[in-house]
Amino acid sequence: MMKLLITALVVFVFVLIMLSSFLFTVDETEHVVVQRFGEIRRVIDEPGLYFKQPFIENITRFDKRIQLYDIPTERIYTMDKKTLLVDTYAMWRIEDAELFVMTMRTVNNALTRLDDVVYSNVRNVFGKVDFDDIISEKRSELLEIVTDQARAEVKQFGIDLVSVRVKRADLPDENKEAVFERMRSERIREAGLIRAEGEREATEIRAEADKEAQLIIAEATKQAQILRGQGDADALTIFASAYSQDPEFFEFLKRMEVYETSLIDSVFVLTPEMEFIERFLSDN
User: Least CB-packed of 99, 122, 239, 250 within 10 Å?
Assistant: First the structure.
């Protein structure tokens, strides 16, 4: 009985081994390439259970999901002769597994090629712009250009390059102090130009305001003189009209005004022969 049980167990294990040689599974997250003596027989992208010929067919699995490759930091030179240490990364995936195996064969080879392609395009694109553009919001546009150019290059290897991004873009230690000092000098110069332009505009505004104020004052003076002249003319007209109605009363009234303003707090030496006294006496 024991020998029969052992025999059955051995047979069961053998059957499992044989089945594993005939059968294999494909996950939904992977490409499976079936090769016979190094020749690609088929590529399976759909999940499920599949058969293969044992011992003569081999399978190679590749992840079909988006993968992240951290590219080593590289030194590049901008158009304004500044040196930058750029730390980039690429997001990529295997789009055509058959083409990938035929051209790259392994993932390590693909990463080496990605490294070369991405660095080459980053160097070319960043080398055509100034340092300030790279560290500004314009960098996103530059990276889109890098991604498009690099994607076109790696497509022939069955690779889809999803995106290229920069983690850090730093100055080398030996250049930081000189670049910062130059940037500070440029900012001081720009601030001086802005202040000078502001002072020039302020002077123009003040001059224009003074000119307008003088025009307004001149116009107001002109109107005042016109109104004053019209007032004087109206007053003379009123006086003339009043005088014509009763000349004696008008003369008497004017004489009273003269007496009132002349004799108060004043000392006069008068003689009877003076017309002033004569009129005063006659009025009284």
Answer: 239
> And the tokens for 167?
């983690």
Query: Is residue 34 within 8 Å of residue 43, measured between CB atoms?
Result: yes
Look-up of token digits 């100055």 = 171
Phi-psi region of 76 (alpha: psi -120 to 50; beta: other; left: phi over 0): beta
Task: Report how far residue 90's alpha carbon sits from residue 164's, in angstroms, rounded to the nearest whole number.
Answer: 5
21 has pLDDT over 80:
no
Instruction: Tell me 72's DSSP state.
Output: P
Burial class (CB in 10 A: 0-12, 13-18, 19+), 115: middle
Q: What is the pLDDT of residues 92-147, one digit of tens each?
A: 999 999 999 999 999 999 999 999 999 999 989 988 888 788 777 888 888 899 99
Which stretches of 130-172 are DSSP H helices? 131-134, 139-154
Label residue 68 by pLDDT band (50, 70, 90). very high
Instruction: Map out the domains of the chain with their CATH numbers.
Output: 19-63 (no CATH), 67-170 (3.30.479.30), 246-283 (no CATH)
Residues 6 or more apart whose CB falls under 8 angstroms from that of 92 comprise 66, 67, 69, 114, 154, 159, 160, 161, 162
Is 0.70 topped by the overall pTM? no
Q: Of all helices (H) and strands (E), which one includes residue 81?
A: none
